[in-house]
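Reviewers of the previous submission asked for a worked example of the structure-prediction workflow described in the proposal, so we include one complete record here. The input consisted solely of the amino acid sequence. No template or homolog information was supplied to the procedure at any stage.
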Amino acid sequence: MRRTSILLAATCVACAEHDNPSPPDQFAAPGCDGAASGSLVLSPELPPRREATAIPASLVALSPDSLLTVDGKSAGVSLYLRNGPSPVPIAAPEPLYVLARVREEVLAAGAGTIYRVRPDLKTVEALTDVPLRTGSIISLAGDESALWVSTGSSSSSSAELLGSSWDSPHLWARRRLAGPVRLEALGNGRVAAATIAAPHRLSIFDTALRLREALTPPARRRMLVRAPAAAFTQALVLLDCGRLLHVVADLRSDRRLLHLYSLEGRAALRRSRTVEAPFGFAHSLPQRQELLGVWHGPGWWEAVWMQWSWKPEQ
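From that input alone, the workflow returned the following structure tokens.
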């Protein structure tokens, strides 16, 4: 493992209101006091490079030493170990496009079916079918009470949010949306949904798909003025201390617009910051304060681990 200077000399004060980062040894801010009044700090680290013809369509971490990927083309899941020479294949009934950590499990989505991935048994088991009306499954999320799926199509604005309880996984409620969204479960029967296309509205729904809150974060003119379609919601990532990170990426560059939300009480946007981050954000392990992403180039890709901390305001 090696420390890499991807962002601002190996650290990124991702949501600060100033531009001068402090030395790395000042970044530790234990507990949630720093999160309430401070800035999010990301410190990227890279494991060994993986040879590949394409980056994963989706990836999730089982632990800091292992992760699962799907490519959207082959019928299976690949299990990568940090020191393993090659991935361990896990066969699936069809190509899989989306992976998500749900409760203590990993779920995957195919064309219209949700699967449970069992890395310990090297199996993929069908969980439930999703009654699609348009497009395909774009994102999925779940908590202790419900499972949510977003659907849509790149060729139209038709999109839906579907929800099902674990008690009745074959019964789905549905709600039409203005456009495709990415999802992140917030716990306590709530799910966040961010529109992929501008203006990147963030909405919070409950298990009955009722809209509870909605916010529209500010745009960055230099990202949207010439080609609005080039800026898209790349990820929603739940952090600790009641914080949610909303990542908007610019396809024309390595630029990322990071919005930091507070979910305590009513949802509120705390800070926004544009950074140069040449990798994709995926998901987090809040208990370990670690975030997973992917960095890639011609014929290779690397998982990017980002440890976060909260830097108090000076």
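DSSP finds two helices and 27 strands in the chain. We consider this example representative of the routine output the project will generate in years two and three.
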